[in-house]
Write a structure and sequence with these properties.
It comes from Paramuricea clavata. The protein is α+β, with helices and mostly antiparallel strands. It has 10 helices and 10 strands. Strands 1, 2, 3, 4, 5 and 6 form a 6-stranded mixed beta sheet that branches. A 4-stranded antiparallel beta sheet has the order 8-9-7-10. A hairpin with a 5-residue loop joins strand 4 and strand 5. The protein binds flavin-adenine dinucleotide (FAD).
Length: 324
């Protein structure tokens, strides 16, 4: 691959065209890709696989558009990485006067650059975005199911260590997973939570640890394995979608549903994998199939804030316990 990379991706038909859209100034020696804002994260990921390049920061979602991600300053992975919009090297925007303005970054006005990159749609309609890309990075993805809620959410030192030891970390809690199936059946049948005691501290966590590696110890998954994973994702999200109305009507089913979901996650994510960066980040497909109420909070990962983070997690645990 040459050290210059220029392509324009249009809508869902991703095609490489030869003419550069921007005078890239200082970015001339870096690899860039120019996309229409309607290109989705999943579409660009396919392009990255075909062309062996990646963003080192991105969104898990595979159906969001880059226009939406960048305008809102969303997403990012990796503790040495910024938000996706921070890697924008140029953009064109059609303003209220109907004229298209072309910008390249950095300019000599950093505040204006930052406002344009995270523009919230306020400057007009973006018509193209140029982003910095890297040669493909291979990462090691480890799925760790050994920690309990108590081990991490009541222990800021352990949480901090896990954060420090990994480049990117995702921690998931599926409440009720330490209840046994006989307990869950009793809970559903008798509908008396007071008869089945649940201690959230004993629930297991799912932790995804992502770390870039120089030379993978084993081959990365092939297309057949990714196709199988797509089918698994479709089954799990499809199951979630079709069960949602029953869960709404029968709240006593929710602990069993979460326990089954956690068991499925353990089965499907049993191994450590070496994967291209884009596959490791966009690891879950079809989340658009299963609409959920999604509340999100950002925490500062400054080393001194882990005691506050465990407090926040404990508040979430207390609310779940109250619901139970
Ligand atoms: C399940 C889920 C999980 C999420 N997880 C995270 C997370 O972990 N971290 C995080 O930071 N965010 C997260 N988000 C938030 C998500 O990234 C944002 O809502 C993002 O804006 C979604 O992109 P979209 O393509 O749906 O945007 P849209 O809703 O289409 O657009 C969002 C806004 O961007 C602007 N915009 C879009 N296109 C253009 C354009 N061409 N020109 C000008 N302005 C434009 C508009 O102001 C528009 O209102 C999550 C969202 C969901 C649904």
């Amino acid at each position: 691959m040459s050290d210059r990379f220029c392509s324009v991706l249009i809508g869902s038909e991703l095609s490489i065209v030869s003419s550069p859209m921007f005078d890239r100034g200082e970015a001339a020696n870096s690899l860039t890709v120019t996309i229409a804002p309607g290109v989705t994260t999943g579409e660009l990921s396919k392009f990255f696989t075909d062309n062996n390049v990646c963003f080192k920061t991105d969104a898990i979602l595979d159906k969001a558009t880059y226009g939406g991600l960048i305008a809102a300053g969303c997403h990012g992975v990796g503790k040495d990485q910024l938000a996706v919009s921070d890697y924008v090297k140029g953009m064109s925007i059609v303003g209220a006067n109907g004229e298209e303005a072309v910008y390249t970054f950095p300019s000599d006005d950093q505040d204006n650059d930052n406002a344009l990159k995270c523009n919230m749609g306020l400057f007009g309609v973006m018509t193209s975005i140029t982003m910095e890309v890297k040669p493909m990075v291979i990462v090691k993805v480890e799925n760790d199911f050994s920690y309990t809620v108590e081990d991490l959410f009541y222990n800021p030192t352990a949480l901090k260590k896990l954060y420090e030891d990994n480049w990117s970390l995702e921690i998931f809690w599926f409440p009720f997973n330490n209840l046994s199936w006989p307990q869950l059946i009793a809970l559903f049948y008798f509908r008396c939570p007071e008869q089945v005691s649940w201690e959230p501290k004993h629930d297991k966590l799912w932790i995804r640890k992502i770390n870039p590696v120089d030379v993978p110890d084993e081959p990365t998954p092939n297309q057949v394995e990714y196709d199988i994973k797509e089918v698994q994702d479709a089954i799990t999200t499809g199951f979630g979608r079709s069960s949602a109305p029953y869960l709404n009507k029968n709240e006593f089913l929710i602990p069993s549903f979460l326990k089954a979901g956690f068991e499925m996650v353990q089965t499907f994510n049993a191994t450590t994998r070496f994967e291209p960066m884009n596959k490791a980040i966009h690891y879950q497909s079809f989340i658009d199939v299963m609409p959920v109420l999604d509340m999100e909070f950002a925490f500062n990962a400054d080393p001194d804030t882990f005691s506050r983070q465990v407090e926040a997690m404990q508040a979430a645990i207390d609310i779940t316990k109250k619901y139970y």
